[in-house]
Amino acid sequence: MREENKKYDLIIIGAGPAGLAASIYASRYKIKHLVLEGLTGSQLEEAHLVENYPGFISIKGTDLIAKFKEHAEKFGAEVISQDARGIKRLKDGTFEVTTGEHKTYQTKTIIFALGMKRRKLNIPGEEELLGKGVSYCAVCDATFFKDKTVVVVGGSNSAAMTAVHLAEFAKKIYQIYRKDKLRSEPVWTDRVLENKKIEVIYNTNVTEVLGKDKVEKVKLDSPYQGKEELPLNGLFIEVGHMPQVALVKQLNVDLDEEGYVKIKPDGSTSAQGIYAAGDITNSSNKLQQALTSMSEGIIAVTSIFRYLD
After folding, report:
1. 5 pLDDT band (50/70/90 cuts)?
2. Strands (E), 113-186
3. How many angstroms separate the CA atoms of 25 and 17, rounded?
4. How far apart are CA 83 and CA 39, in angstroms?
5. How many CB atoms lie within 10 A of CB 5?
């Protein structure tokens, strides 16, 4: 059964830094709005430590996003844990958003703040052993690997942070990267290279995950110590992200060649009444930081305030 349509001036889809910052400003502008949080949460929640957010020398990602949400709700935001599944423009120019819970909401404007989704290795055994040693979230699963041997695949900040976090629990961490040099920020690269529990294996790819009921080893495309298989207990995959734009495509919004939403300086897209902010956009030099995402959310909702007025 569908619930009777609820009507808003703005629906913000996504409750990460961009969406919650937009909500705070929407409340200040007295814009009647709804935040659809979704069921997967924000990518920021997966950050073991955030050390580049002014005002907090070091804070867990889960704690920081909780503070954002508390702030938004304190200002009167209506935040609900529902996944937007369908969007269509109505004859009067407004939009109808349908969620996975079969509820519908009408709105004059939308901000897409959906963030990114994880890339997969797409190798044999990855899907079959997901949750049985294969993981995409060290913050979620690190404690299961106390005194175990694990592999982190990737060379970015998130891979380095994952390796350092796992070192608090595991006895041995191999960080496997396909190139000859890590591309994480120097501060995180140093922490990896200085940690005696972590060993970096360069110029190597993981090609298969092996194990019957749990991860037992991985196959490598380049021999390590003369062997093409590496025994382990857990595999953490950190090979980047891609913008979540499936919903955006339903409205034929223009994307760039990499699949990011094209936005103008005011946060608007090619579709009237549709705005975007944060990691899914081609703005802020695609830096994908909490601070830049928040600024985009604020710019978008300020533009919407003028648009509605």
Report:
1. low
2. 116-118, 134-135, 149-153, 172-176
3. 12
4. 6
5. 15
Under DSSP, the state recorded for 102 is S
Give 126's strand partners: none
Sign of CA dihedral 8, 12, 14, 15: negative
Task: Number of helices (H) and strands (E) in the chain: give both, helices first.
Answer: 7, 17
Say which amino acid occupies 152. Answer: V
User: Whole-angstrom Cα distance, residue 84 to residue 102?
Assistant: 10
Q: Taking residues 66-70, what's their average pLDDT?
A: 96
How far apart (Å, rounded) are the C-alpha atoms in residues 72 and 27?
A: 8
Strand segments (E) across the chain: 6-13, 33-36, 78-80, 84-89, 95-99, 104-112, 116-118, 134-135, 149-153, 172-176, 198-201, 206-210, 217-224, 227-231, 234-237, 241-243, 274-276
CA distance linking residue 184 with residue 161, whole number of Å:
9
Q: So what's the pLDDT on residue 3? A: 46
Contacts of 226 (CB under 8 A, 6+ apart): none
Residue with tokens 């936005």: 263
Structure tokens at 107: 């709105």
Is it the case that residue 175 has pLDDT exceeding 80?
yes
DSSP letters of 61-94?
HHHHHHHHHHHHHHTT-EEE---EEEEEE-TTS-
Return the pLDDT at 240: 86
* Rounded (10°) angle between helices 157-166 and 186-194: 30
> DSSP letters along 221-241, please?
EEEETTEEEEE-SEEEE---E
Q: Are strands 234-237 and 149-153 parallel, antiparallel or unpaired?
A: parallel
Which one, of 204, 142, 191, lies nearest residue 171 by Cα?
142
Pair of tokens at residue 57: 């020398």
Give the span between the Cα atoms of 217 and 234, in whole angstroms: 9
CA angle, 94 as apex, 92 and 96 as ends, to 5°?
A: 120
**What count of other Cβ atoms lies within 10 Å of the Cβ of residue 225?**
6
- pTM here is 0.82
> Cβ atoms within 10 A of the Cβ of 17, count?
29
